[in-house]
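Cross-check.
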Amino acid sequence: MTYTEYIDLPPLMSARGTVVLPGSKSISNRVLLLAALADGVTDVRDLLRSDDTDRMLEGLQTLGIRIESLGGNDYKVAGCGGNFPVKDAELFLGNAGTAFRPLTAALALSGGNYTLSGVARMHERPIGDLVEALRALGANIDYLGVDGFPPLHIKPAMLSGAALVSVRGDVSSQFLTALLMALPLLRRAVTVEVIGELISKPYIEITLAMMARFGVAVQRDGWCSFTVATGSRYASPGVIYVEGDASSASYFLAAGALGGGPVRVEGVGKTSVQGDVRFAEALEKMGAVVSMGDNWIEACAPVDGRLKTIDLDCNHIPDAAMTLAVAALYAEGTTVLRNIASWRVKETDRIAAMATELRKVGATVEEGADYIKVTGIGFRVQGSSKNGDPGLASTLPPSPFSLPGSIDTYDDHRMAMCFSLAAFGAGIRINDPKCVGKTFPDYFAAFASVTQAVPVIAIDGPSASGKGTVAQRVAMQLGFHYLDSGALYRLLAMAAERDGVGLDDEAALAELAARIDIRFEGEQIWLDGVLAGDALRGEQCAAAASRVAALPLVRLALLNKQRAFRRAPGLVTDGRDMASVIFPDALHKVFLTASAEARAERRYKQLKEKGMDASMPDLLQDIRTRDERDTNRSAAPLQQSPYASLLDTTALNIEQAVESVLTGYRTKCLAP
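Predicted model, tokenized:
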């Protein structure tokens, strides 16, 4: 999937399907480093390919490690037995903490002259506790910027014979992971004592499990101390498989809980070594129906369709807990996530970032040093009722969420993936979506494969082609919402006349378009709380609407207003650019037309039935003039959208045209 500076996710109605997870970042980078440090050659299967693992691969190759691609996500790594061939190198490691911290420790204890740097955010992430522990072992490390933070300069050193070192456990578990993975290079016994409470304990479990796979068993005293024995040495296991990423599984499992499900993830299960697999337990506490096998997990919506609030210590699922914060939007009441201090020193300050973005979508949020409280909106999730009604409000406005301009992601992959879930109930714009490349480059394509957007039938066509009447009747038969986009421009023209705004004042018209309140209730249309009369359909109003609709700033101002009408169970809309610009992902697109003569005759009869004066020659000339203007205008010209079905109604009555649209829609619904 190709991304621009943002990605717009449509309102989502349901979720169902299966996702094969990419490899775990945490396991991938641990395995790569251990394979490089080991004796022998290791075949690494199902490695995650992402920005973080690319930084580790590049770093190891710069250090002289021979790495061969076996095709797909499989690699052959020739270990160096703890002695990196290159003793003088500069490594750029981006924002990959799982590469930067372990490589710092391994290089500090292996001898050599190395400079390690990263992106600006990496230089804001603390590393001082790890450096102090390494210095206690005799390592020679200098800070090249601010003390306690990267970049670093590692120099050859005479390592001490210290048998005991200490490291803080309450900032980042990566410090302990880095030390433990590097200690076998000393070939002697060393004990690491943990100062303070150890956070993110499951990630240490991953470290110990991977070290054991490479032949090093670490002795431990609970979570207080860890000892690497004399003579410890890494040996290749021959072949090692990387589990699917349990943190990434959380987004799809939450989608199953919000969108009905079932949604299944494959690659992790009840035998997983990753702590974030316990996200499934937290989701169950919120009411979701969860089942699990050795290599899969599946989630469905709560039986009663309502997520419950929770108060949870999240030390065991630090990354996946972010997904709970967004899921809390849909629960009625306040969810409290505790013991998440590590969020502060991740790719961004995740507590602050999460609080800021959750408020954009209507949540009330309280943040603390190591907790976040999220008060949601009490939203009945999709798939919970027998008739498929997701429980959304049936009238506009309001939307279930306030509509944000966009969600900022702070160059943090997990912020982008978490907030994709906010598309249930209302569409959402995610800024900088390419940041998911850090761990899951194809995330949004995978997310789209298991989610179903609120369906849209977009009917475009020239003036007086009958598209409005057809669209309204199709909407009634399906029980969908209806949007007459042409009415929006007519209403704007009426509001401009009311407020004395000139039809050539583009900026003032755009500002007016953004603030007017428009409601459709059956066949009634309301403008700022006042019922619009027959003048809305008059030729004078139509001509004025055609003028304002040609203004780019006006069209932009009305864009989000039109998209806000897209809500479950579906939308039927008509206009000039519904299929090409406003709803390019519409499930069924129709270009409805008729001859100019047939359209003039229909308009003539319509006006006469309302007791209004009309002239056939004048109407015909007006239709031809408007066709030419609409076709040639620079802003969203009238044209048949690609993949739109052409429906010529010159010889059809309304009932036949409606049935043709319905048949086309039902065919699309049945298509695989």
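The first strand starts at residue 6 and ends at 9. The radius of gyration is 30 Å. Passed to J.P. for a second look.
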